């Protein structure tokens, strides 16, 4: 199968990265060890290439109204230079993808879908744009995305990027809030810096024009070395996001899942209204409204292992028999790892509502053996 290469592909090869296919892209899985890269992000900083993520520009006088129609969030209320986590759903309420949308200028928005779903999201947005004065364009080929994540991320950024009041959107790096963004300079080039991430740590995601991606990557590696920064791959990114209780499309989210099933009902704005104050009919609204009132058939929960063997995606969550053996199945694991930070296995799983309460003792069928787990509130890890 042919895969797409990141603008930073040769940099990864030169660093000795183990590459893997992910969402149709050839991306670094790890450079040294999963554990070392994970710990670097928790203790200092990690440098990630996220150029496999999609980039869709939405512009025009009705851009906000269009996004209100196409997505579950309320983008008419999103202030400039802010970002919002949201989802795009089908008519039946199933999640086509989760994404971040940036409001980066008057009548200008920028949507970032997951790599594997970028084409699906683009097609859906183009279809939903009918009747709106809006332009929807795929601009991902011209951009690279680089993330610096970890407690020393801000110090590292200051070594490489400079603030410029003319392009900052009225915000300084000191004052940049979570899910806000600003323009900064890398030499003579302008980059968009957002205080966002997928690791549970403080950090930044930097959008840069593709021709300048290699220079920025190298500058961040060099500037971050005294602070303990290391390049980090997809394996560490996955264990970090799981500790932070963040869902992954294809694991916790898919077209059979609604935002309510995934515990993300808060991002569905059923009370959106049109300019005249009437309820706004966005795609999937009727199905989502019905789901919001219905008793859940399954609940996404965190599981903390009290043994040593980790659960993995697809493993059955079970009750145990009186003699401690595998019993009735009550759910399915969606993601699971041995937590490097916490020192015990953690997992996310969909389970039946009657076993979803915190503290419920369950087990996971790990190759025929009932491994003990306890239902636990997420996130598993909080910084600070």
From TrEMBL:
GO molecular function: aminomethyltransferase activity; methyltransferase activity; transaminase activity
E.C. no: 2.1.2.10
Sites where the protein binds substrate: 205
Catalyzed reactions: N(6)-[(R)-S(8)-aminomethyldihydrolipoyl]-L-lysyl-[protein] + (6S)-5,6,7,8-tetrahydrofolate = N(6)-[(R)-dihydrolipoyl]-L-lysyl-[protein] + (6R)-5,10-methylene-5,6,7,8-tetrahydrofolate + NH4(+)
Keyword terms of this UniProt record: Aminotransferase, Methyltransferase, Transferase
Single Gene Ontology BP annotation: methylation
Any single Pfam family the record assigns to this protein: GCV_T
Domain GCVT N-terminal: 8-272
SUPFAM superfamilies for the chain: Aminomethyltransferase beta-barrel domain, Folate-binding domain
InterPro entries hit by this protein: GcvT (IPR006223), GcvT/YgfZ/DmdA (IPR028896), GcvT/YgfZ_C (IPR029043), GcvT_bac (IPR022903), GcvT_C (IPR013977), GCVT_N (IPR006222), TrmE/GcvT-like (IPR027266)
Gene Ontology cellular component terms for the protein in this record: cytosol; glycine cleavage complex
Occurrences of domain Aminomethyltransferase C-terminal (ranges): 298-381
Top-level lineage group: Bacteria
Oligomeric and partner information: The glycine cleavage system is composed of four proteins: P, T, L and H.
Role noted for this protein: The glycine cleavage system catalyzes the degradation of glycine.
Protein family per UniProt: Belongs to the GcvT family.
Protein name, UniProt field: Aminomethyltransferase
Biological classification of the source: Bacteria, Bacillati, Actinomycetota, Actinomycetes, Micrococcales
């Amino acid at each position: 199968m042919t895969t797409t290469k990141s603008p930073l592909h040769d940099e990864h090869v030169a660093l000795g990265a183990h590459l893997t296919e992910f969402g149709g892209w050839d991306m670094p899985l790890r450079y040294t060890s999963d554990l070392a890269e994970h710990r670097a992000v928790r203790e200092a900083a990690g440098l990630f290439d996220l150029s496999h993520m999609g980039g869709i520009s939405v512009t025009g006088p009705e851009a906000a109204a269009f996004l209100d129609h196409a997505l579950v969030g309320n983008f008419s209320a999103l202030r400039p230079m802010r970002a919002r986590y949201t989802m795009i759903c089908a008519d039946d309420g199933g999640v086509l993808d989760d994404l971040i949308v940036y409001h980066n200028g008057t009548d200008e928005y920028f949507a970032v879908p997951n790599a594997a779903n970028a084409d699906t999201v683009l097609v859906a947005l183009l279809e939903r744009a009918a009747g709106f004065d809006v332009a929807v364009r795929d601009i991902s080929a011209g951009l690279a995305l680089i993330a610096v994540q970890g407690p020393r991320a801000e110090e590292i950024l200051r070594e490489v990027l400079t603030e410029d009041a003319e392009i900052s959107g009225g915000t300084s790096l000191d004052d940049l809030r979570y899910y806000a963004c600003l323009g900064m300079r890398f030499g003579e080039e302008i980059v968009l810096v957002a205080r966002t991430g997928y690791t549970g740590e403080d950090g930044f995601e930097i959008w840069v024009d593709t021709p300048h991606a290699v220079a920025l990557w190298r500058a961040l590696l060099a500037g971050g070395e005294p602070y303990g920064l290391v390049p980090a791959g997809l394996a560490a990114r996955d264990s970090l996001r799981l500790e932070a209780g963040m869902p992954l499309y294809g694991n916790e989210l898919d077209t059979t899942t609604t935002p309510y099933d995934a515990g993300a009902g808060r991002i569905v704005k059923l009370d959106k209204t049109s300019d005249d104050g009437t309820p706004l009919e966005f795609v999937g609204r009727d199905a989502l409204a019905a789901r919001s009132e219905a008793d859940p058939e399954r609940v996404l929960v965190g599981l903390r292992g009290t043994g040593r063997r980790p659960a993995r995606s697809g493993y059955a969550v079970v009750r145990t028999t009186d003699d401690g053996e595998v019993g009735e199945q009550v759910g399915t694991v969606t993601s699971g790892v041995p937590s490097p930070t916490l020192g015990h296995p953690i997992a996310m799983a969909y389970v039946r509502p009657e076993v979803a309460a915190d503290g419920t003792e369950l087990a996971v069928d790990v190759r025929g053996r009932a491994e003990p787990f306890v239902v636990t509130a997420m996130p598993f890890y909080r910084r600070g």
